[in-house]
Specification:
This protein is 41% helix and 18% strand. The chain has 490 residues and is an alpha/beta fold. It folds into 3 domains: 138 residues, Rossmann fold (3-Layer(aba) Sandwich); 160 residues, Rossmann fold; 52 residues, no CATH class. Strand 11, helix 13 and strand 12 form a beta-alpha-beta unit. The longest helix is centred in the middle third of the chain and has 36 residues. The N terminus is likely disordered.
Length: 490
């Protein structure tokens, strides 16, 4: 969104939210049906009751969102997205229709209203909270006084602002070009490139075709570069897997407090921001659990409602940490009124990544913003309640992670170690929980709880361990045949 504004000057944005009542009626009907089922209503009469309500107009939507309306919360999130892109909101317009207009999405009359609002506020960009088709984008740009962008283009711009590593920049550029390719427009023969020889006079190749060919070449190069990134990641992962250190990935809705919780657990000092998509490039830090097991904790990009599929595809290299993780921590904003909706959106993206079958812990973050009554209600439901800002609940979370991890299991053992083995004793103190210590002559008897990877290296010191001796079969040595006497020897 940095287009035409001067450096250091924020763009003025007009926000256009859209809601199609046919979809809203369906969603509200589903919610009402669940509520009636929970209340014990007869399933055979549910459809009849809900059908009567719809005929009476009880499912119709108001023209503008009112406080407490879920649509008001969706528009608030849209406003936060635009502000995260560095724009100043100067006007907001919400359009409600039965169905989208194929030509302009919002209808000719609403286009005039949006154009008037943009002209009166000197807006430099109009942002739609919806994905526009190439035809709709062309028609709107022809009728409105300034640039028009849709939701996907807005999110791509935010990603481009926050990409810091080479990998992140490659992924953003790939997604931007895939979005741009079907939206290229040209002016036919006016943009033709004429040939320079006999038989080449005429329209030639249009500028549009040239641009498309350039983008296709660049897309191929980007995909090759990202394949190299994936190969590097696979090599790094293979080296990590040679030592059994499981990975735990933080996932969740954007601005749920993942980076704050990541810093609380690892003291990594990564960027914490209330801006959406502040974390784009993945971060990995080691973490020691109460059992003294070491794990790698990964902080990943946040998800959002209606996250474009092209972004999920382009950022698959980044999200490989989620795919390869043994345990997922779904961090939720406990103080958000949209917490359940956000949970559903995160599950949708995880479904696209095909990781919904992985072990997962739900972590209710931002406990410091809850009242005591809300905290008690969450605890009664058995929720993991934490605060990444104050550290509340961090120990309980680490214990829950310890219980949920299945690789490199923890077990108890008794070890008899000579006191002369100082390096072995140091390794036990660093990597195991010592339950009991007794001295017997020049040896130390320890009862420990430790990961199997550590105990496997100390098997010779384990009390009661009997090494299995495998006898090798004796090798037969074949005697060489005695050579026959020659005539000369005889």
């Amino acid at each position: 969104m940095s287009g035409r504004q001067t450096k250091g000057t924020a763009e003025k944005a007009v926000l256009v939210g859209v809601e199609f009542s046919c979809r809203k009626v369906a969603s509200k009907t589903t919610e009402a049906k669940r509520a009636l089922q929970a209340a014990g209503a007869n399933p055979e009469t549910l459809d009849e009751i809900l059908g009567e309500r719809a005929l009476l107009g009880e499912e119709s939507a108001s023209v503008y969102p009112v406080k407490g309306d879920p649509e008001d919360e969706r528009f608030e999130e849209f406003r936060e997205l635009v502000e995260s892109a560095g724009a100043t909101v100067v006007a907001e317009i919400l359009q409600r229709r039965q169905a989208p207009d194929p030509a302009t999405l919002i209808g000719a009359g609403k286009v005039e209203e949006v154009g008037g609002a943009a002209a009166s506020t000197n807006a430099t960009v109009i942002v739609f909270d919806y994905d526009l088709s190439p035809t709709q984008l062309r028609n709107l740009e022809a009728r409105l006084p300034c640039r028009v962008i849709d939701r996907t283009q807005l999110i791509l711009d935010i990603f481009a602002r926050h990409a810091r590593t080479r990998e992140g920049q490659l992924q953003v550029e790939l997604a931007q070009l895939e979005y741009m390719l079907p939206r290229l427009t040209g002016k036919g023969k006016a943009m033709s490139q004429l040939g320079g020889g006999i038989g080449t006079r005429g329209p030639g190749e249009t500028r549009l075709e040239t641009d498309r060919r350039k983008i296709q070449r660049r897309l191929l190069q980007l995909r090759r570069d990202l394949d190299d990134v994936r190969k590097t990641r696979r090599l790094q992962r293979a080296r990590r897997e040679s030592v059994p250190v499981p990975t735990v990935a933080l996932v969740g809705y954007t601005n749920a407090g993942k980076s704050t919780l990541f810093n609380c657990l690892t003291q990594a000092g990564v960027l914490e921001s209330s801006r959406m998509f502040a974390t784009l490039d993945p971060k990995l830090r080691s973490l020691v659990l109460p059992s003294r097991r070491k794990v790698l904790l990964s902080d990943t990009v946040g998800f959002i409602r209606d996250l474009p599929h092209t972004l999920v595809t382009s950022f698959r290299a980044t999200l490989e940490e989620v795919v390869q993780a043994e345990l997922l921590l779904h961090v939720r904003d406990a103080a958000s009124p949209r917490s359940e909706e956000q949970k559903h959106q995160v599950r949708q993206v995880l479904g696209e990544l095909e990781v919904t079958g992985k072990p997962m812990l739900e972590v209710m973050n931002k406990a410091d913003l809850l009242s005591e009554a809300d905290r008690s209600a969450l605890r009664r439901r058995g929720e993991l309640l934490v605060s990444g800002l104050t550290g509340e609940g961090a120990e309980e979370l680490l214990l829950a992670m310890d219980r949920a991890l299945t690789s490199d299991p923890v077990r108890s053992a008794e070890l008899l170690i000579p006191q002369s083995e100082g390096s072995v004793l140091a390794a036990i103190v660093a990597g195991a929980v010592v339950e009991e210590r007794r001295y017997a002559g020049e040896a130390v008897l320890l009862r420990v709880t430790a990961p199997e990877s550590l105990l496997g290296r100390l098997r010779e010191f384990e009390v009661g361990y009997v090494p299995v001796v495998v006898e090798r079969p004796k090798r037969r040595v074949q005697k060489a045949a005695k050579p026959e006497a020659t005539d000369a020897e005889v």
